[in-house]
Every structure is written in structure tokens, then in C-alpha cells.
Amino acid sequence: PHVAVETDVAIIGAGPTGLFAVFECGMLRMKCVVIDTLEAIGGQCSALYPEKPIYDIPAHPAIAGADLVHRLEEQAAPFSPIYLLGRRVEALSERDGGGFELRTSKGELVRARAVIIAAGAGAFGPNRPPLNDLSAYEATGAVRYMVARREELRNKRVVIAGGGDSAVDWALSLKGIAKRVTVVHRRPKFRAAPESVAQMEAAATMGELDLAIPYQLHGLTGKDGVLDHVVLATLKGEEKAVPADHLLAFFGLSMELGPIAEWGLGLEKHHITVNPATCETNIPGIHAIGDVATYPGKLKLILQGFSEAAMAAHAIHPRIYPGEALHFEYSTSKGVPAE
Ligand code: FAD
């Protein structure tokens, strides 16, 4: 593995609190790298509710999730953070002689003198159906959880599983491109925009796509990751096999703490326990802030995560600038560097 970057502080998670930690560290002359599994910054605000207004951000009577993220990015920009997106932090270890080494899912190493874990409820990933040989079919792209380019599915037989907007929208979008589209759902009611559901049902009536209801995914048949059938079953156990080149599964995103649980950190019910005065974990030099951190009186609110970012940055400062007294200063007297 190559060392992608050496920095003062490695921040795991580009949610609102991780982004604000860049600013707080920057004000104390500490450089940051921010790593996130998602391809975009913003954590839950971007992934789960970009258009919903948030009402309890001080001085913003209402601000949409995506707008908050945009402002945080702008506020962090003068400190030139390095964003490593689309990769999960798999391993975190202490280095001989001090500091830490993080390994990402892309095999890069990030070296840092301190770490801030701002991992929310964990890394986002698709909910994967429990099917035989799933990983072999995922590896070849036969089973997918997202579609980058519709053209990749031209003239393919596609089974789409799920009952939400993604399943319905992709069924409508692919019906004129794919050779055959079959939508599998366990019950007649879809949790999607009624207008889209009506369009999908009309397309089914016209024979432009097939609906397999009430069916659930049951198995995959094929060889070496090349799919030939998706096997469906009703709750009563009646099975049918649908010829398919691809399965698109849209069962939503879930978050899991994943590898973080294995780093020797003190945990309490899937949260990292910290000292509330410094947000330091049981491992000196590793701090945790935002939704992932817990202590008596913790509120899982963005505004509390912001304050934790400030406390963690101040607590980390002596590691980066040992022996240098940290004189408390207001941002108004200091200003931020020109970008
Ligand atoms: P998150 O936003 O969860 O971001 C964590 C990031 O870390 C994720 O992007 C994840 O992919 C990444 N990550 C995790 N593990 C790894 C790893 N190993 N490697 C790489 N990346 C990793 N809060 C409010 O204060 N006010 C509200 O009105 C409000 N409304 C909400 C409405 C909804 C619908 C939801 C779902 C939440 C709402 N919240 C609200 C909660 C708020 O969104 C969270 O408190 C906030 O997002 C937490 O920020 P965070 O930075 O700690 O973590």
C-alpha cells in the first residue's frame, strides 16, 4: 500500500460534524484529511434528507440539509482539506514513535498525528439481500445496488427488487432500454410517488414490463458470477425462476459501525464512549464527535456535534504543537486565511 497522504488530523466521516472539525482544526493551524465511504460529503444530511429543512441550526431559522453541507464546505475551504471520498476506513493503528496509520478500502495509507472519528451511525452501504453466492455476482456486476449508466443495461434482462422510489423510477427508466424488466415486490402497495407507481402499473398492463407480486427474492442461479435466473418465492413457498442477466436490489441504505468496532475503542451500544471535556476516547490521540460519540447528557444533534468539534480540536492542539501555549482567541480577532 502507498502512503496517500500525511497530515496532522485524519477525520473519519464527512458529515456535518466532520466538516466543521476541519474549520476548528484549521483555526488552530492543523491540517486535515477527511475520509468518507460516500462519494459526496455531508453524511446523513446529503444522503438522507438533502431537501428537508432543519430548524435548529443556530441563526438559520430553516436551512435545507444540502444547503447546510454546502455552507460547511465553504467554511472549511480556506483550510484546504483533502477529501478522500468513496472509500471506507478499514483499519486504524498506532505507529511506533507516535501518531496513527489508517488504511482505506482502496488500499491507501493515511498517516496522521491525531484522529477524529465523526462516523455518525457508521458507514453507509446498501442493504444486501441474503442470497446464495451473492458476492460472486456482485463482483461481476450481475447484482447491483446502483446504476451508473443506463446504457450498460441495454438489451439485458433485468430484475428489479424493492418497493420504494428507486425501484419504481429505475423500472420506468429502463423499460425502453433493457430487453425485459421484472419488478419484484413482496406486497401490492409501493412506497413511492403515486404518479410513478401509476405509470409503472400502466406499463405493466401494456406488457412493457412485468410485475412479480407478491414475491420475494429467493436465490440466484448461474455460474462464475454470470447470472441466468433470479429465483423468486411467495411467502407460501411457491417458487418461480425469472431469466435475468442482472438483479438490481433497492432495499435502501443502512449504516453500520463496521470496522470501527474492532479498533479497541470503548463502546456502549454501538457508540464510542468519550471524555465529554475533550471528546477523547480511551485511546489517547483518537477523539470521537457527533452522532457516533456518547457521554452522559449527549444529544444527537448537529449543533452539539459542532461544539464537540471545537473541543476535540483544542484538545488535539498540544499533540501537533507540543510545548506551544494555546492562547484562546476569537475567530473575529484572528480571521481566516484567504483561500
Ligand atoms: P453523519 O451525518 O452520520 O456522517 C457520518 C459519515 O461518516 C457518513 O457519511 C459515513 O459514510 C461516514 N463513515 C462512517 N464510518 C466510516 C468509515 N469507516 N470510513 C469512512 N467513512 C465512514 N439533526 C439536527 O440537529 N436537527 C434536525 O432537524 C435533524 N433532522 C434529521 C432528519 C432526518 C431525516 C435524519 C435522518 C436525521 C436528522 N438529524 C437532525 C440528525 C443529524 O442528521 C445527525 O445528527 C448528523 O448528521 C450527525 O452528523 P455526523 O457528522 O456526526 O454523522
From TrEMBL:
InterPro entries in UniProt: FAD/NAD-bd_sf (IPR036188), FAD/NAD-binding_dom (IPR023753), Fd--NADP_Rdtase_type_2 (IPR022890), Ferredoxin-NADP_redctase_2 (IPR050097)
Cofactor: FAD
Transmembrane portions of the chain: none
Protein's UniProt keywords contain Cell division: no
Enzyme's top EC category: oxidoreductase
Domain of life: Bacteria
Matching SUPFAM superfamilies: FAD/NAD(P)-binding domain
Keywords, comma-separated and alphabetical: FAD, Flavoprotein, NADP, Oxidoreductase
Domain FAD/NAD(P)-binding: 8-298
Statement: the UniProt record of this protein carries the keyword Membrane: no
Catalytic activity: 2 reduced [2Fe-2S]-[ferredoxin] + NADP(+) + H(+) = 2 oxidized [2Fe-2S]-[ferredoxin] + NADPH
EC number per UniProt: 1.18.1.2
Protein family according to the UniProt entry: Belongs to the ferredoxin--NADP reductase type 2 family.
Record protein name field: Ferredoxin--NADP reductase
UniProt organism field: Teichococcus globiformis
Taxonomy of the source species: Bacteria, Pseudomonadati, Pseudomonadota, Alphaproteobacteria, Acetobacterales
